[in-house]
Amino acid sequence: MEDQQVPPPQQKQDMTECVAALEAALLPCLPARELQAIDRSPHPTHQIDVERHAREFMEAAKKLQLYFIGLQQEENPSEAETLRKEISAMEEELKTKSELIKRHEKLIQGWRTELKEQLDKHVTELERV
């Protein structure tokens, strides 16, 4: 069985739109022209700036990736979680039905007692006659 489940088309579209919006928000943090100019620069301090910006950008991208994985896992519970929920629901249903059976058994016992009393009355009346 595959661990990752494919999200529904609407959810994929929503995620894609969200990623596009986040990308648009993050890209200004990585000023491309400036970084390209610095990247070509012979000064070692400029190289460190490029690496720092790239590292910050990659850290932000990693955080986004983990966030979306977390969202997907929340919406698609594992098989074990699904089974736990089903077992819990079945246990609750069993409890409810057991209580119902006990009530019905009490009712049946009451009816048996009433029917025995009526039978005894009829037998007594028949014996008199």
TrEMBL record:
Keywords: Coiled coil, Nucleus, Transcription, Transcription regulation
InterPro entries on file: MED28, Mediator_Med28
UniProt cross-references to Pfam families, sorted A to Z: Med28
Subcellular location: Nucleus
One GO CC term, this protein: mediator complex
Record carries keyword RNA-binding: no
GO biological process: regulation of DNA-templated transcription
Endpoints of the signal sequence: none
Keyword Transcription listed: yes
Coiled coil location: 80-121
Family to which this protein belongs: Belongs to the Mediator complex subunit 28 family.
Name recorded for this polypeptide: Mediator of RNA polymerase II transcription subunit 28
Origin species: Coptis chinensis
